[in-house]
Amino acid sequence: MIVRCVGALFAVLTVLWAQPGPFNRVLHPFDIQREDGRPSQRPFLGGYNTPRIQWSDYNDDALPDLFLQEHDDYVTLYLNTGSRTQPRLQWFDDDVFGIRTGAWFRLADVDNDGDDDLFCAGDDQTIRYFMRRDSDYVEASNGLMDDEGALILSELTSIPAFYDIDCDGDKDMFLGRQTGTITFYEHTGAYDNAGVPIYHFVMDNWQDIQIIGGGRPLPKSGLLHGANSLTFGDLNNDNAAEMIYGDFFSQSLYYFTNTGRCDSARMERTMDSYPPETPLLTSGFNAPSLFDVDGDGDLDLFATVLGGAFSLSQSLNSNFYYMENIGSAAQPEHIILSDNYLDVFDMGNECVPAVYDLDDDGDPDWILGNQTETIASSSHGQALVYRNTGSASKPVMRYDPSLTIDTDNIYNCAPEIFDLDDDGDPDMLMGRSNGKLAYFENQGRADNPLFVRITTKYMDIDVGSRSVPRLADWDGDGDADLCIGEFDGLLNFYENTGDPQTPQFKAIVLPVAGYQARGCAYPAFYDWDADGDPDLIVGFDQGEVQFFECTPEQDTLFHRVDVLNLRPARKTAPFIYDWDNDGDGDLLIGTQGGGLFAWEAGTPTAIVAPAYTPTPQNITLSEGWPNPFNGRIQFSLTIKRTAHVAASIYDVNGRRMISLYDAARQSPGQRVFQWDGRNRLGQSVASGIYWLVVHSGRQIQSRKIVYIK
After folding, report:
1. Could you tell me which residues come within 8 angstroms of residue 117 by beta carbon, excluding any fewer than 6 positions away?
2. 656-666, strands of its sheet edge to edge
3. Positive or negative torsion for Cα 432, 350, 407, 353
4. What integer pLDDT is reported at residue 664 of this predicted model?
5. Of 575, 538, 495, 567, which Cα lies nearest the Cα of 549?
6. Residues 363-371: what's their mean pLDDT?
7. pLDDT tens-digit map of 463-473
8. Choice between 567 and 119, residue whose per-residue pLDDT is larger
9. Contact 649, 660 (CB under 8 A)
10. What are the domain boundaries of the chain?
11. What is the pTM of this model?
12. Which pLDDT score is estimated for 615?
């Protein structure tokens, strides 16, 4: 397998539409500013929740470029267009390798030819190896083996490291284990006939290191091991490499001093929190990376936050730490300069946009919803207001905390702004994680709104989980009808049988031709063909955006006309409006990463057809029976090939109630799961809606459950 590298420096992504377009992706069409007016340097990159990074020279210009993986299978490249001492990073490609890299990747020159080769996760914890040959990555092994012919396995939750620890001129391999130990493979200096480096297994407990627990107070289960990531570098200028280690159960970093020699390491754990003066403190599972990013001769430190055992919400948009070494090559002193190194616009987890002229000044403003506050022990999501302080043709979106919206006990905030009572000012509906809607009446004015929460169970509408409401008059009777996306990817339609002043929404069946549910549906409406009726746009969990033309003269009201594939983005929430006031609708898309993408309507300069190979389906999950239930509910699961399988019950807020099954290597066949309505403590849960979620590799299937006591 040969993977071609992208050749152009500044790529323009364009998708050509039969009807609603074309759209060109733009990286900085206008500024998004903080409250104090400071702009985000990279406002439309979609945000990051769990970035995994590495520095490497991609284009042979002697400048380090940044590789970043946010989602399994995709690696984004930022090219360094600055200098060795002052890097300037330019987004280049969201799928730079063009292969499915799995849960992790590593770049290392293991054949000593002067360029970095690629290692990445394979099936069933194997390791794939690609040799860099000029501008190509050539697959040389889809299951790396040692010198005795045994497969080398790397846990998907841990990230390997490659470093010449014995100073013999080639890079050895270190595999962190969830047992808290490190498996060591020595590079023998030899290669097989295909050019694959040959590694020799040395030991499973390198240096007798065992990481147990760590960080702030642990959960009650006591001493714990976890997923991990490690990096090496000579931090005291003695030619022997130190090691920095991040663990799932540590909110900081472990520091190991090498008291041995270059050819004979001896690691001593000297710090459990690093840096020593002002330690890194996050939600846990910090992935460290030592690299001299400013070219001053000493190693700086980066750490990205991959989740951890503590409050994940606090690290949702503070997850890419840069710690400059202001000491020296012999006496390091790392200080934290940034928790968002790329300075991307990022609201945390998920971003659902709504657009409306909130202050009646002739230009559109934003309300952006997210899943949860970006603080420890978050109790609700947020809906934040961004005012347009520029103009209708040259917007500048600035955060305005003066207009507050009460989202207490509301998660997965999905705002929709509309004059629901026909009094001349905007009101608001808000989707919720539990499938219901909150209603906010504007008790202020059209130019100075005051959104007052009236109810969190608007008209007793309930679509099950993750409601995303949008209003549009698709039947042309002069009042707004309601469409609600939901967790399963379905659309729920409600006809307004009332009037513009007193709406009454009645559930109806409205077929949509060509509709393909892709999980977590995010609808929007815009009349892109200017025929007087609202066309439909739907984003999905897996990064698709589907376009449907409204055709009231036909039996089916909406017909699909095109699809935009935004992988690796997830949970794409579209909103179309004319942000540059040139007469056509531009595309604003919120993402799971908490940020935004911008696609401008215009004439295309290139056509890029993103390729995607779907993962073969390994599991088939039945519906539950009986459902609703008040005793036990049963599911049948068919497994096609040996793989990791895990099944858990979640409530509508995404909290795991209980793990029903977890097998590292489940053989093919049929399995039956039952749930008796109890949580992991044996307590009976409250009546309501729950979800069975089954994972197998990257495949996820879910079923809605209704529990009645």
Report:
1. 107, 108, 109, 110, 111, 129, 130, 131, 132, 137
2. 656-666, 643-651, 688-696, 699-707
3. negative
4. 62
5. 538
6. 97
7. 999 999 999 99
8. 119
9. yes
10. 211-343, 349-600, 619-707
11. 0.82
12. 39
Per-residue pLDDT of 128-182, as tens digits, reads 999 998 778 899 999 999 999 999 999 988 999 999 999 999 999 999 998 999 9
224's CB contacts (< 8 A; 6+ apart) are: 212, 213, 218, 248, 249, 309
* Nearest CA-CA partner of 229 in 294, 165, 304, 163: 304
CATH number attached to the domain at 619-707: 2.60.40.2550
86-109 mean pLDDT: 95
Name residue, tokens 């430190």.
Answer: 301
For 349-600, CATH number? 2.120.10.30
- Rounded CA separation 604/458 (Å): 43
Q: Sort residue 118 into left (φ over 0), alpha (ψ -120 to 50) or beta.
A: beta
pLDDT at 606: 31
Could you give the 3-state DSSP secondary structure of residue 702?
strand
Helices and strands, number each (H, E), in the chain: 0, 51
- How do residues 56-68 score in pLDDT, each as one tens digit? 999 999 999 999 9
Higher local confidence (pLDDT), 543 or 436:
436
Contact 321, 19 (CB under 8 A): no
Residue carrying structure tokens 């549009």: 472
Written as one string, the DSSP assignment of 522-537 is EEEEE-TT-SSS-EEE
- Nearest to residue 371, comparing CAs of 546, 590, 544? 590
Question: Mean pLDDT lowest for which of 400-404, 423-427, 642-646?
Answer: 642-646
Q: What is the average per-residue pLDDT within 566-571?
A: 87
Q: How far is CA 611 from the centre of its chain?
A: 20
Amino acid at 301: L
Q: Which residues contact 112 (CB under 8 A, 6 or more apart)?
A: 169, 170
**Strands across the sheet with 320-325, in order?**
286-291, 300-305, 320-325, 334-338
pLDDT of amino acid 9: 30
**Beta-sheet pairing, 522-526 with 573-577:** unpaired
> What integer pLDDT is reported at residue 215 of this predicted model?
44
Instruction: Give the Cβ contact number of residue 470 at 10 Å.
Output: 26
The count of other CB atoms within 10 Å of the CB of residue 662 is 12
The answer to whether domain 349-600 and domain 619-707 are alike in fold is no
Buried residues in 573-608 as b, exposed as e (16+ CB within 10 A): bbbbebbbeeebbbbbbbbbbbbbbbbbbbebeeee
Please answer whether residues 403 and 449 qualify as being in contact, where contact means their C-beta atoms are separated by less than 8 angstroms.
Answer: yes
* Cα–Cα dist 531/526, whole Å: 11
